[in-house]
Design goal:
216 residues; seven-stranded parallel β-sheet; 7 strands; 6 helices; Rossmann fold; 48% helix; alpha/beta; single chain; globular
Length: 216
């Protein structure tokens, strides 16, 4: 059985991504910052017929990410797919947002993704198999003035994804991103179910580094 870690397993995209991979027979490891979030997601997954385990993980803390990956490898042997879906939203004017706030968001959006990828990549390279999937945002290509931290972070993680893809593709490791260009909302083109399907298709096809989902 293959194992997927979903970092940022909240009630929207994270839940649907976890369910999509779980329905394909993956052992699902859900990671989120609070036990309350994990408990709700794990319960919903079980109701949907997907067995999953939850691990508390603050994506801004390198030690938490390292512990999560180490625990998963100890329990299930290896990480076959890493999904990095963590981010935060903080509305502010670019003229007023603090450096501390930008740094906090950058640590989660970019550095967390990079650190997680650096930890799983060596064993994937050795096996010449594995996938790293990262949630991107349309703010990477067209900044949202009320969300400066997110805009900077998504631009950064988009570049990180492309660099990882180019670095690892010759080693049999696939890296890709789903860029969500709009507000995720159920019942629309950007329904979390559609986001999850885009992730799974990237994983299955492995023929492009980026899929852009828009509300159009």
């Amino acid at each position: 059985m293959k194992t997927v870690i979903v970092i940022g397993a909240g009630p929207g995209n994270g839940y649907e991504i976890s369910k999509r991979f779980g329905q394909e027979g993956f052992q699902v490891v859900c990671a989120a910052r609070t036990q309350e979030t994990l408990a709700a997601v794990i319960t919903e997954l079980k109701e949907a017929g997907v067995e999953a385990v939850g691990v508390e993980c603050d994506a801004s803390r390198k030690a938490d990410i390292a512990s999560l990956i180490e625990w998963t490898e100890e329990q299930y042997g290896q990480v076959d797919v890493l999904v990095y879906n963590a981010s935060i939203l903080h509305q502010a004017s670019v003229l007023e947002v603090s450096a501390e706030q930008i740094t906090k968001e950058f640590e989660i959006d970019v550095l967390g993704a990079l650190h997680a990828a650096q930890l799983v990549a060596p064993s994937m390279k050795e096996r010449k198999d594995g996938a790293i999937l990262i949630t991107g945002g349309g703010a990477a290509m067209q900044a949202i003035k009320s969300l400066p931290g997110l805009s900077i972070g998504k631009a950064g993680v988009r570049q990180v994804t492309h660099m990882l893809h180019d670095t690892l593709k010759e080693d049999g490791v696939y890296v890709g991103t789903v860029t969500i260009a709009g507000e995720v909302k159920r019942g629309t083109a950007l329904d979390p179910k559609n986001v999850a399907e885009a992730f799974y298709q990237l994983y299955t096809n492995r023929n492009e580094v980026e899929t852009v989902l828009s509300a159009d």
